[in-house]
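Help!! Second protein's tokens look totally different from the first
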Amino acid sequence: MITPIRLTPNGRVPDDLALICKVQDNFSENSKTYYLYRFSSVAVFYSEKPHRLRDGEMTTTQFCLPYTGLCWLAESIRGFYTAPADGGQPAGKIGAETKIEGEHLLLHRAASIEGTSYSGFVLCNLSREVYGRTGRGITQELPMTDSFLKRSDFLHILKGKIG
């Protein structure tokens, strides 16, 4: 499994990481910037937002999955926003799960994203541990609010870059 280096706020992005898109989430109280990079055969999501308690500091998340998994991600999220009669997920379904290139991916609905009152999705890679916490069994997660996914062009951009 290929593992890109850990990105840091205001740090230099290595030349072998190609920026696919940058999308701002200004649709909730958690103003966050999402970056999507490609590193060889790996898609790297990196997000940052101002720290709630420490001025000038950023809270960051880095999430990796096989690049070929981006299509599954986009289609799975769209399935939750589409009526069952139109090919969407069955009523009552709250998650989707797959294995792509040996990595176990899970997408599930969440009622409270990052402790806020905003609902959305959490994407989990059960095959990768959080950067800096290896050996603790804490897997990588990427939270995304419904307001961000519905109001931004993120899903459209994602589908256009991979579809």
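Here's the second one for comparison:
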Amino acid sequence: MNQDQAKIIYQQLIELWKQFCERHSDLFNLAVDEYQCLLASDMDQLNVILDQKNELLHEISNIENERQRILNKVQELTQVKMDKIYDLITYLENEYGLSHHLERYNETLIEIIEKIQMQNKKNQLFLNKALLNISQLKKEFALSKKSVETYNRQGEKVTSAR
């Protein structure tokens, strides 16, 4: 791979990482919106958000496929095995002095992904607590039979179980 090819590939990777960061930021925002819908018990809006998340995940998958295509191309041109983006960043830095922007985008992407993971854990914790509360309410309702004493017109006690 010559210097010009390296620069072109580097620019393609920068653009991909920019897209990764944008899409993952959108995904984080949707995860926060999902939590707000859970708190408000707004199931209609929650369904809309889940559909948007699925579309966004599909876009991210397409970007990932493009990343893999570029990585394969670099491996063919260089005959160097690269399994992770870190391998490519190291290669571009050592061979061509290229990686500063890509490294920063990668760090930003990692931070965004960590925020998404934390928000997803928060959403899951809320759902688990809600399910636990529903389960406890069902048990309490099933176990509690209230006995109510009432009297009829003749003044006789009438007992009914509810």
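Reply: Different proteins will give different token patterns, so don't panic. DSSP finds four helices and two strands in the chain.
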